[in-house]
Every structure is written in C-alpha cells, then in structure tokens.
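Intended use. Records such as the Pyridoxamine 5'-phosphate oxidase family protein entry shown here are meant for training and evaluating sequence-to-structure methods. They are not intended to support clinical decisions.
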Amino acid sequence: MSTWQEFAEQAPEMAARVRARLESFQHHVLATLRRDGSPRVSGTEVAWRGPDLTFGSMPGSRKAADLLRDARFALHANPGAPEDIMGGVDVKLAGRAVEVTGDEHRAWIEEVKPPSPDSHLFRLELTEVTTTGVSEDQTHLAITRWTPAGGVQTFKRT
C-alpha cells in the first residue's frame, strides 16, 4: 500500500490527472463493506493533508463503522456531466482507509472544525488507481492502472 505522495512520486502525470478530477468536484462515491460483506455506497469529500489523501466522517456513520471493521474501500470520483466524461477521465481508487487518531486527529479538528469533535478522519492507503478515458482519436478506451508493485500500465479496449 502507498500514500498519495508515494503514488504521486511513482506516477506524477497520472497523479496530476487524478488529482485534477478529484478537485473538479466536491462530492464523490465511496464504497465500503457492510458486516455481511455486501457493498455500501456513500457520498464523501476528499482532501489532501501532507502526504495523504483523506476524508472525514460523522461520528457513528455507517461508512465509518464499516471502515473501522474492514478498512477496504473503493472510491469513484464524480464523473460529472456526460460532456465532462468524454473530455476527461473516469477515476477510481482502491485500498485501505486507516483511521487517524491522536495529535494528528486533534490538529485536523482544530483546522477543519467539523460538525463534531468526535468526527472521524481516515487516511487512504492506495493499492490501485485507475483512469479510463476515450483515446484522442476516439477509436478505443484508454485504461491506465497503477499499483505499488506493478507501477503504471496502459491498456486499450476497443
């Protein structure tokens, strides 16, 4: 697993495209695992804190409970309107969401001032980042996938 910074150092061009998409919209879709293993999707907002991509959650939320029990997540960046998708990339990230506690959590509470001081902060440890877009010549999908072990790989799908 890698921090956002490690991903950005290994794949700077891809990280720039992914970050631009995430920053283009405030709300994204987070998938977590319920106790029975079925998926749950929730809206979320992401932010960068030092080397990490993070998100907060209200205390007692289902997504926080899911992640505290099983840290695996998938995040789908808001694709925007159809014209945005055709001109940009679809972005998906996966990995583990690790709760931030202690001094770092207290600093976040002071800085961000979430609705409750008991709000959760999660740091995203990345195992996979994928972008999908239409090729410049409009003849195929261009899929770029990064993993910590495999680096950046590009695939064509016609």
